[in-house]
Amino acid sequence: MPSVQPSRRPRGPSRRDPSAETARTIGFVSLGCPKALVDSERIITQLRSEGYQTVPSYAAADLVIVNTCGFIDSAVEESLDAIGEAVKENGRVIVTGCLGAKGEVIRARFPDLLSITGPQDYAGVMKAVHEAAPPVHDPFLDLLPPQGVKLTPRHYAYLKIAEGCNHKCSFCIIPSMRGKLASRPVDAVLVEAEKLVRAGVQELLVISQDTSAYGADLKYAGRTWQGQEYPTRMLDLCRGLGSLRDPAQRRPWVRLHYVYPYPHVDAVIELMAEGLVLPYLDVPFQHASPTVLKRMKRPAAAEDTLRRLAAWRAICPEITVRSTFIVGFPGETEAEFQVLLDWLDQAQLDRVGCFKYSPVEGAAANALGGPIPGALQEERLARFMEKQAGISAAKLKKKLGRTLEVLVDEHTPKGARGRSWADAPEIDGQVLIEGKLKPLVGERVWVKITGADTHDLRGVLSDEGVGNN
Ligand code: SF4
């Protein structure tokens, strides 16, 4: 059930009697990206703090909350399907999240919903819950773990530092759904991180729509944390997070996502070289052709990204850079696509995701001419992925024989699966640990690398790790 396994939905024929004087029960369906997941965690944390129970079946739920995604058309369909299923199986449904910003679309299909709210409207969701299923006081259920409730496994957690975005990328409707950049004060983020680390979290994944812009809306206001002044700024946030690191235990890992390649990011790379932050950077380049980037209206489009990458690697040679790209953007010529392939050759990125452009309702790019036919998009995607596969395989091959620290995510029939500093959960490759001895999930172990393919590494447990990574 989604309360703890967000991708699945509750099962069961009909809801229970909500007038019963037992703890109120909520079914939860969480769809969408890590930012939406953090919203779900906040709502569930609030529900638990008020004594509500989350349950894994429609039948056992007094009502169902569906946290929707509206990023691309397929996500909209998935969200509408999820709402339809909840309406059919339970009948009392609260809708929130990105698609909630388009209330009229949802209401036209499901006129009897209890409420519809947009993203991050925690108060709106809780108001609807209170009206539909007033809380029953139970001192035991009111107890809340100090780190809140996490939907990710216990050993890693997403740390959302800001919401919204000040850019206007032509393919994206997030700013219209989530609003302008709104940063959380740095002390609030650091206090949350501190609690998570104290609760045993090994890895913090810093997310927002534009991590490099963090704090700009607050004019980088200074806040006090642990007796020290920290400006609300990316570099200072990273310093604070780095100060949580216990050198003996080498934790927590701090991983940065959605970082735009502005010059001030160089100073953060120095923290990576010092070991305070993982040498890993997720930079959404999206394309390399200046003309396509201009049509995309991308931030940092004018940056010389190859020079920036070289500067980062000079500061921290171990850095892993991941990125995502869009091929087949309206008007993309063969020459522009070739610029991207050539750039990829030179950039030698470690990890790459690539998508075919698909129009999103409400996006400015829909008005651009020159749609690329589906077959040509497919062909470009295949050429792009083939090139990157060669780069990735060659990079992973260089890790053969090394001993890497690996955070164990799960057990497999042949051993376990985990990730090194170079692999973010869900989106990057993995390290497959072979052998009868299974390390614990959430444990960090040393693994001698014995095999490599295009995206994943294989290895065996080793005790020779320290100093060899
Ligand atoms: S930077 Fe661009 S793609 Fe990212 S959220 Fe903002 S507008 Fe959308």
Largest sheet: 5 strands, parallel
Oligomer classification: single chain
Morphology call: globular
Strand order of the largest sheet: 2-1-3-4-5
The unique ligands bound to this protein are: iron/sulfur cluster
Number of helices: 12
Word description of this protein:
With 469 residues, this protein is α/β, with parallel strands linked by helices. Helix content is 31%, strand content 21%. It has helices at 34-49, 73-89, 103-109, 122-132, 174-178, 186-198, 234-243, 265-273, 290-296, 305-315, 334-347, 374-397; strands at 25-30, 53-54, 63-68, 93-97, 115-116, 156-160, 162-163, 182-183, 203-207, 222-225, 228-231, 253-256, 280-282, 320-327, 351-356, 403-412, 415-419, 431-434, 444-452, 457-462. The strands form six sheets. It has a five-stranded parallel β-sheet with strand order 2-1-3-4-5, sandwiched between helices. It has a five-stranded mixed β-barrel with strand order 16-17-18-20-19. Strands 6-9-12 form a three-stranded parallel β-sheet. Strand 19 (444-452) and strand 20 (457-462) form a beta hairpin. The longest helix has 24 residues, at 374-397. The protein is globular. Bound molecules: iron/sulfur cluster (SF4).
